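> @MW can you paste both from yesterday?
MW: sure, first one:
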Amino acid sequence: MRFSPLFWPIRLKGSTIYILDETRLPQKLAYIKARNYKQACKAIKDMKTRAAGQVLLVMYIFLQLLKQGKRKELARVALTINKTRPTLSFKSLTDMVLGWSKNRVPLEKCLLGFLEGLKYSRIRQAEDAAKLLKNNDTVLTHCNISGLMPLIADIASKQGKSLKFFATETRPYLQGSRLTAWELRRAGFDVTLITDNMVASVMAQGRIDKVIVGADHLALNGDIANKIGTYQIAVTAKYFRVPFYVICPPPSDKKSGKEVKIEIRPDKEMLEYQGLRLAPVGAKGYYPAFDITPYKLITKHIRMEIKR
């Protein structure tokens, strides 16, 4: 089974965390060295790693603290972690770790066990997604699912299914072009890049058979929060009767998407790109990083199951 570097973008060597810098892809495969929790939390805030990478990083921060002999700092560090990203909430993870510590269980063993379980849960999600696809399907995706799309394609290939992909650019961070298209081509799969506003036109032409996206947050009623632009794709897929599948985490304690806090990123991230000003001076930007897709628009949730 082949894995993209984005499938497991975090490593711990000694007491240093190595974080795959997704903002430098596809030009360079480079890693950031985080020697303490503050540097690691900054990597989360700056979106140097996202989605599954951020979940992994949270757990590696706690492992790093243990390596550094700083177990007494767990609670204080957990508070810092919880403040990094509002929509992808880490509180359930940090509460779980603090609970292990309070009950005086072997903390390092629990952390490593959780990570191992997460790995196999992600593989199972890819397997479940591959079962929903047919030979010669063309799959549209939005943003990036942290290494799962090429894994889905690889599993489907072993089942005798040939797949093609359409990936949206996913503005303004361009995860679709910088990450999804890169990892699919790196794995040898057929991928076509489109801008975010081409989805309706491409579906109208009958080019899309299925949609598979990720989710940063799953509410109890089935609503999801995912990268901004997901909602409009779901509406369009419903109109054209294209199945819309979501690879999502375990549900939170939120009753519906209305209770999920949407992160508003700095408008500079829309107005500039890699130091280049894209908009005229004085123009304002509005960048909600996520939107809510109602459960009624979702054909199937491909849920992650993790034993804690």
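MW: second:
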Amino acid sequence: MSRTEIIGPASSYYVSQRLRLHFVDWGNETKPPLLLVHGGKDHARSWDQVARALRDDYHVIAPDLRGHGDSAWAQGSTYTLPEYVLDVAQLVEVLGLAPLSIIGHSMGAAVSLYYAGVYPEKVRKLVAIEGMGAPPELRELNEKRELWETTTAWIDAVRSAARRQPRRYATIDEAAARMREENPNLRADQAHHLTVHGVARNEDGSFSWKFDNASRPLFPQRLAPGSLERLWQRISCPTLLVHGSEGWHGDPAKDGRAAHVADAEVLEIPQAGHWVHHDQLDRFVAAVRRFLARGA
């Protein structure tokens, strides 16, 4: 194992909307910048294996989104996509990263697609892992719900989250076992690594997840029909839309979502669920290497 494979990233902080937000920097500042954006209930260090594989060729940076990892929790926040996009935009601005490449997973991929639609000139390449939301038929069902129905559901969810006490685990291994229940494809060593960086120690010596439970309820943000698709149509960079053959996301090439991204390539990775980069790391990294190097 080389020295660079052993050395981990440096931790730093920046401010967005008065929140102190954390990010890790894997160094190599002379190389092209590459931002890794995690999903919901996750954290920056979930990208470690991907970052180690790419750090020699790219300046890799991975933020903890607000309410996640070692970033501050937003008081009274609704944790909407535009707020997460603001945090990414602020980090890119503070560090002077644009134009850059971005890899996002799940909610982080949705944030990355949104950012690339708002600032198309700032993104060179984009990899989105299961980040286009629910398949169209499910979105259409949700769009038919009345605003008072979605708002009532959100208020109930917020109240439920407020009453919910963060679960405490006696040991790291116990928390890691819970993580493997969520994703059975994880190896024991992967789950342990993700857990070590994903929990905080409580005063009684137990462990709880770092993410803010208030980030769970989805704010009933009502978008005008077709507005999300028109946002995707503004994305001008080459885009790789990745999904797992066993994921819930569906194939955006078959259901029409991919057609809204002008320069999009769709990749299905077999024997992978929602966490493609964990379930099939080598296949994912190989595909990303080829994609990022193309035309460079």
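> thanks! Strands lie at 10-16, 19-25, 33-37, 59-63, 100-105, 123-129, 199-201, 207-209, 239-244, 264-269.
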